[in-house]
Amino acid sequence: MSSQTFLDIVAKRRTYYQLAAKSLIPDARIQEIIEEVILNVPSAFNSQTVRVILLVKDQHRKLWDIVKEVLKGVVPEDAFPATEKKLDGFQAAYGTVRLRLSPAALLLLLTTGSRFYFLTIVPRSTTFKKAAQWNIPDDWDLSGQLVFGTPVGEPNKKTFKPVEERFKSFGL
């Protein structure tokens, strides 16, 4: 793939906030894609510290029930309806991919002088502590998440902050 093809794909990428509980890709293929990515995406010093959790269908909905329960105890009561509406949108989708890092990744990021030290302050998720049926190790720290399904409607218009506020280069 040429660099221009890649940039064209990136430019066309959109976030759809309204998703239906359908997938155009069979579950087995979704799992194969994730497994291929885990095997082939490079990691610092070949540390292989990325962990991925895939939840679809009933397991996906169960996750978002648990998230709502956890957040109801944290989010101020007057703000919870807006939070719940957003969570309902996530729950209406088909599945969730949760990206996690093992503690070794956090240590490696710190010891290699990487700027990713902020990952160490991400609080441990209580979500999976309340969901023992998934048997997720306590030391898998949440670092990212993707909710997916079939897009419903059109995405919001893309807006951009000036590149100068988000990028610096030196020595050119």
Write a short abstract of this structure.
By secondary structure, the chain is an alpha+beta fold. The protein contains 5 helices and 5 strands, in the order H-E-H-E-H-H-E-H-E-E.
Task: Describe the protein in words.
The protein is globular. It has helices at 3-12, 27-40, 57-72, 80-91, 103-111; strands spanning 19-20, 50-56, 95-101, 141-148, 150-151. Helix 3 (57-72) packs antiparallel against helix 4 (80-91). The longest helix has 16 residues, at 57-72. It is of the alpha+beta class and 172 residues long.
- How many DSSP-defined strands? 5
Major beta sheet, specifics? 3 strands, antiparallel
| Major sheet strand order | 2-3-4
Secondary-structure element string: HEHEHHEHEE
- Count of helical regions: 5
Secondary structural class: alpha+beta
What Rg is obtained from the alpha carbons, in whole angstroms?
Answer: 18 Å
Q: What share of the residues lie within helices? A: 25-40%
Assembly annotation = single chain
Which helices and strands occur, and which strands form pairs?
Elements: H1 3-12, E1 19-20, H2 27-40, E2 50-56, H3 57-72, H4 80-91, E3 95-101, H5 103-111, E4 141-148, E5 150-151
List the keywords.
alpha+beta; three-stranded antiparallel β-sheet
